[in-house]
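pinging the channel bc i need a second pair of eyes. not urgent but kinda urgent?? the chain im working w is below, pasted from the shared doc
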Amino acid sequence: MENNTILVIDDDKNILAIIGMYLKKEGYGVATCERGDAALKAFHEAQPALVVLDVMLPGMDGWSVLEKLRAQSAVPVIMLTAKGDTMDRIQGLDAGADDYIVKPFEAKELLARIKAVLRRSAAPENEREISFPGLSVSLDNYSVLLDGKQVEMPPKEIELLFFLASREGKVFTREQLLEQVWGFDFFGDSRTVDVHVKRIREKIGERPDWELKTVWGVGYKFEAAK
């Protein structure tokens, strides 16, 4: 059976207790950590299915913890923060977070987001890799290969490219992409989609065989030559 442990990293003991109670009631295992500088050790010990990570932590802040986690793992991460500004949300998602929830929050809301993120990350094994001439995108090891060479991309760019490429020819609006790639409960500015598409294009370019296209007035699609 796969590990269903959720690692919760927060320096507020009350929050740890409340989240832990709800998670255990739903059948999840729970591991906790109260310091940013102890987070990586806790992560390696727990080998969690998902991490709930507070931004404000002693020893090391949540952004730094997220950066270090992303350097070695694509495990889903939900950020907890007291900041609710849209740009803060975009910062977290661009840094590799899978979702973002603002304090104070209802434990039931966090639980719903955890379930949604886990569902999105559990794509069937036969649907986790897509290839076109000169391009391969894999969610198994979160890699993008261009002409056989690794292209460095953060997880969210890889997920967006995979989503569009695996639905070749279909047009998606920015709102649909936010819902499908970032999650139905991310009420962010749709400009974050434009930013991610721009970065992907800068890294993979375009070929006669395929192209990440803008459909003006609608959204984006990945189109392959017929």
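so Helices lie at 13-25, 39-46, 62-70, 86-94, 107-121, 155-165, 174-182, 191-204. and The mean pLDDT is 85. — does that match what u expected or am i reading it wrong
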